[in-house]
Amino acid sequence: MIAFVRGNVAAVTLSSAIVEVGGIGLELMCTPGTIAQLRTGRQATLPTSMVVREDSLTLYGFADEEEKAIFELVQTASGVGPKVAQSIIAVLSPDGVRTAIATEDVKTLTKVPGIGQKGAQRIILELKDRIGAPTGATAGGAPVAAAAWRDQVHQGLVGLGYNAKDAEKAVDAVADQADAGSPDVGALLRAALRSLSKA
């Protein structure tokens, strides 16, 4: 399997990045937080996980090895496929996932699109003994120009299935949390998702 991809970023879309490797453009499905760290024309190294289905081969790209490990682990729980696994790491940091499972925090897990109460309970039951303790590390997002974060968070929310109007309200709700110098898009996206789940 393909463990990682290194090459120039040829293009970035709402849900994926195309990385050129040896003259071939590989499309990697990524979370909005990971996409926010990539720049077209710049070199990037992304850990990857390949999901093989009868009718498709899909390559998922991650900000770091920890995200990849959580993505692969949560799929071992019944009813969790790659799309839900990707939503989990888009909404929660790796440590956030570990904490939610270790403390049996159903409410936090149900903030993820595609996970209901029963699904969250099943994930906790099946992964509690295997997830490991929180490491205390925070997911590092690359600094992003102050004006750009709004657009990236908005696009990320729309990419996760929210309508544009709700996404706009959520962006406004977290605007006061944006650090003027170097806003962390990943953290702002998670905060916006939390505000949507309360609404």
From TrEMBL:
Main subcellular location of this protein, as a coarse class: cytoplasm
One family name in Pfam for this protein: RuvA_N
Gene3D superfamilies in the record: 5' to 3' exonuclease, C-terminal subdomain, DNA helicase RuvA subunit, C-terminal domain, Nucleic acid-binding proteins
Cell compartment(s), UniProt: Cytoplasm
Superkingdom of origin: Bacteria
Keywords: Cytoplasm, DNA damage, DNA recombination, DNA repair, DNA-binding
Chain spans, region Domain III: 145-199
NCBIfam families: ruvA (TIGR00084)
HAMAP family, per database record: DNA_HJ_migration_RuvA (MF_00031)
Free-text domain note: Has three domains with a flexible linker between the domains II and III and assumes an 'L' shape. Domain III is highly mobile and contacts RuvB.
Similarity-based family: Belongs to the RuvA family.
Protein name, per record: Holliday junction branch migration complex subunit RuvA
Species for this entry: Nocardioides aromaticivorans
